[in-house]
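Hi R.,

Here's the chain you asked about this morning:
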Amino acid sequence: MDISVVIITKNEANIIANTLQSLQTVTSDIVIVDSGSTDDTVAICKKMNATVIETGWAGYGINKNMGIEAAKNDWILSLDADEAIDAELQQTLLQLALTNDDEVFDIRFKNFFCNKWIRFGEWGFDWHIRLFNRTKVKWNNVAVHENLIFPEGVKITKLKGNILHYTVQNRHEYDAKTDHYARMNAKKYVEAGKKPDIFKQYLSPAFAFIQHYIFRFGFLDGAEGFIIAKTTARYTFLKYRYLKEMVNITASEI
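And the predicted structure, written out as tokens:
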């Protein structure tokens, strides 16, 4: 199986060994693109025979593409540091015949909140394309919420098995990530020339909460489902608030 795995990291010592261990039977080519870890992330990756590229932070898409270019194989499994693969996906990958360069593979995610599997709401119906051929597919270069660029007529195939996403370990980490992504997304909006919208700032969070907690059955995940839906609403509010602040700062500097 000629698959390379590419992972971007920064200060992931608490989780990266679990991710790398899940990949040992699938590939011998794991490329880590580390953007300045100050913990033991790099040492752990090297100890587990991964190739480590130590670099600065240029953005999610750019750093991922850097790792893709350094991989030994054209078929790339792209993971984040807090994502492992389960036994069923391991077996699926080992048996997969990669014969069509225009084919990409969609993989189901099992998302965990403080080690609880979230089955419903925003996190419960999650599929992402993560296996592709680098001669045809690349990440775009946006700073946040990067997307894959596909060839025309691409064939999408769903795989058996799951990527296990251990997204947050506590509320403090979750709140910090929410604020970080809200700021980054607001900056992306500014760069795209998007203007503040008071209706979106106040109505979109309420819609997001109702959509994920009620219509997508987030309430069935108990307290965790409520926390996730509420935090998604908070994220939506914050990104529009930060957009307004950034636009006002820019206008005052003119």
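The chain has seven helices and eleven strands.

Let me know if you need anything else.
M.
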